[in-house]
Amino acid sequence: MTTTTPLVIGYGDPLRRDDGLGWHAAAVLALTRPGGARVLQRHQLTPELAVDVAAASGVVFVDARPADGCGIRIEEVAPEYGSLSWTHHLTPGELLGLASLCGHAPPRAWLVTAPVTCTEPGEGLTPPERELLPQVLARVAELVTPTAVG
Asked: What pTM did the predictor assign?
C-alpha cells in the first residue's frame, strides 16, 4: 500500500566522524519533518527497510561519500534487480529493487551525499562537514516538499 508520505533514510556510522553525516541529518530532519516526511536513522540499509520504502510516496537516502573534490550531490536512484546478496547491507538501488517485491512499483528515489573529511573513530562531525549539513538538509527538504502549483 503506497502512502502520500515521503520517506527519508539517513544512514552511516556516527562513531566514525563524518561517516555519520546521514545519521546526523536524519536527527535534525526528524524534528522538522519537511513535507510531512517520515524520517529514519540507520547505521546501514537493511532488507527490513523494503516494506517502508515500498509504502512511501518517494524516498530520499542521505549518506556520506569519499572525498572527491565535489560538493553535495543529488542522484536519482534506479532499482537494481541483480543478484541481491542477502546481507545486512544494501545499496539504495538494491533496496528499491527489493521493495518492488512487495507487490508494486518502487517509489521514485534520490541519494543525497556529501564528501567526508574524516572517518576516523570519534563522535561528531568535523567542522567542514558541519558547514555542509545545512545545505544537505535544504536539499533533502526540496526533494520531499511538494512544489506549490499556483
From this structure: 0.91
Which triple of cell numbers denotes residue 140? Answer: 533533502
Nearest to 45 by CA among 9, 3, 86, 83: 9
The DSSP annotation for 75-104 comes to EEEPP--S----SS---HHHHHHHHHTTSS
- Give the chain's domains with CATH numbers: 7-144 (3.40.50.1450)
CB 86 within 8 A of CB 47: yes
2, 56 Cβ separation under 8 angstroms:
yes
- Angstrom distance (rounded) from CA 105 to CA 111: 18
For 7-51, what is each residue's pLDDT tens digit? 999 999 999 999 999 999 999 999 999 999 999 999 999 989 999
In this structure, the strands spanning 38-42 and 108-115 are unpaired
Cα-based distances in Å from 18 to 71, 112, 132: 14, 14, 11
Cell of 143: 526533494
